[in-house]
Design brief:
Rossmann fold; 2-enoyl-CoA Hydratase, Chain A, domain 1; N-(1-d-carboxylethyl)-l-norvaline Dehydrogenase, domain 2; alpha/beta; 3 domains; 8-stranded mixed β-sheet
Length: 698
Amino acid sequence: MSNVISFEVVENTAVITFNNPPVNALGHAVRSGIVDALDKANNNVNVKAIILIGGGRTFPAGADITEFGGPLLEPGLPEVVNLIENQTLPVIAAIHGTALGGGLEIALGANFRIATKEAKIGLPEVHLGLLPGAGGTQRFPRIAGAKASIELMTSGTPIRASAAHKLGVIDKIANDNLLDSALSYSNTIIQNKLPAVKTSERTDGLQDKKSNKEAIENARNALKSKAGGLHSPFRIVDCIEKALNSSIIEGLKYERDAFIDCLNTPQREGLVHAFFAERKSSKVPEAGRAAPRQLEHLGVIGGGTMGSGITLAALKSGMQVTMVEQDSGSIARGIQNVEKVLDRDISKGRLDLSGKAEIMGRYTPTTDFQNIAEVDMVIEAVFEEMEVKKAVFKKLDNVVRQGAVLASNTSYLDIDEIASATKRPRDVIGLHFFSPANIMKLLEIVIPSNPYDDVVATGFLLAKKMRKVPVRAGNCHGFIGNRILSIYGELAAYLVEDGATPEQVDTAVRNFGYPMGPYQMFDMAGLDIGWANRKAGASSRDPKRRYVSIADRICENGWFGQKTGKGFYEYPEGIRFGVENPDLKQIIETERSKKNIIPKQFSEQEIMRRYMAAMINEAADVVHEGIALRPSDVDVTLLYGYGFPRYRGGPLKYADMYGLEKLAEDIKEFEKEDPIFWKLSPLIEKLIKENKNFDSLN
């Protein structure tokens, strides 16, 4: 028998335990071990029932994702689940931790399910562009009906054992000791000869045909606007509908065909890449060479939107936070910013008053820098202006203890120059949080020229504590994300000056899978911010490089986007993403006429061909220059910080799927129009020459 499955007999019950840490993934060895253990149970005349239980921290939390795309290794998970369901002995799934994906499908193969009150169950395959492929779409609806099944599978969000118990999916909530409760349950089943009904023969969820039909229709209508271009949610609904109207044999075949359909899509490839890229981003050389420093007490300089967001993220991670502001009014606003979010959590049932009191008990606002003298790390979150930040760091250098990490929350600025304001530049690091910092998951950890390894490791520890997705970024203007953003933002300006409208560009980008287009994003962020940056950088701008002044003309009118009710769009009350700005057309036409530009027509396909080429080419340079450690880190940055559609994997994964040779041809074609902006990245040239792709560098 496989060493990842253990077998023992307790009284008249065979206990089959999954021992494949950390999450008991259902890899080939586990599946084979289950088959062997079931055979052993059936050959023991003393065994009257079977318990399936997870060792360690959880019941199986899913299939082994590393097997996706590889050769099918028998026995497959569908065969194992069918084998469990067809046992002549009653089978009890004893669930703790998380029974997710294939783990829940294993449990659905059992006749009975018992779970701890803290346990969660779910079918999250939609997040990988897939659907439950081992009977989940067929067995779950037979118990819970269409509505609950659709919600569980198309959202991918797990539910608590108590909710699953109400649905009838969990039969019993265990007492404190799961195994003891499961053995007691087994004895009850044996002694009372309780009928061991197969899940596939249950009809509880099939009775209300009218409600089930309505749920299917409503789901299909809702997915048209909510699926975000994903294919698998629609196939999930198809499979659930099949479960309501077909035999289990027909339904399982339909599910298998639908699963293979999803498996072979580029969306699945992109989503699986994103899954692994996120897990790889925290693996950095510095953290491998040194342990992090102590990190329990955080100092935050600034209580505005960003400072308060950072404070909240730290407080919710269990840290102590001392926040420094310049005066009592700013202190009051900082406290209000924190309490407003906590009160919202209370109103939504995510927090209670005692929880808020505990959090606020770890929060100390002050106007005195001496109160952060003994913190473990300080994060400066003041105005994005170099001299202001350097003044703060000079002060920190004189106040904060030796050995503390000094961090700057900056979006663009040179972290080495900031560090030069101190006598300990090797203790300095950049932390680019994304707003709102208590919600956005991405954290760019910006590495200066020569930091201590344990300083970098401490930055990654902070990300782990805050449950952020960290990405290591080298020091350049804009780091990874904003540097790439500046290029495709520039390209968006070229498109409009050359003949497209902001609405056409935004529509093309949204249809590609982004939640909003670049012009909607500029308006939301505030056009005055970009205007100030352009004016500040005017003296260093290459005079030969094309410059589009449309945004400047808009700002000169006092139109800064959503905050003023007008920008690239107009914002009547209640219209979040705006309507056409009727005054913009004249501004654009005037700017075109100054350069004798004859406007061209752009198709959506052509807009995205140029938009993605600009983005990918700059992303390749970011990797080539060592600003990003690996291509997948660029993908993670754009996925989590800039709205890149997850099912496309990220810009460099998309480039691999698009084809690097085809991409190079596009860029060389565009280079004829503008050889300064369009210059093929040396890394793309190198990969083509070596017959490799970006993924080969991950």
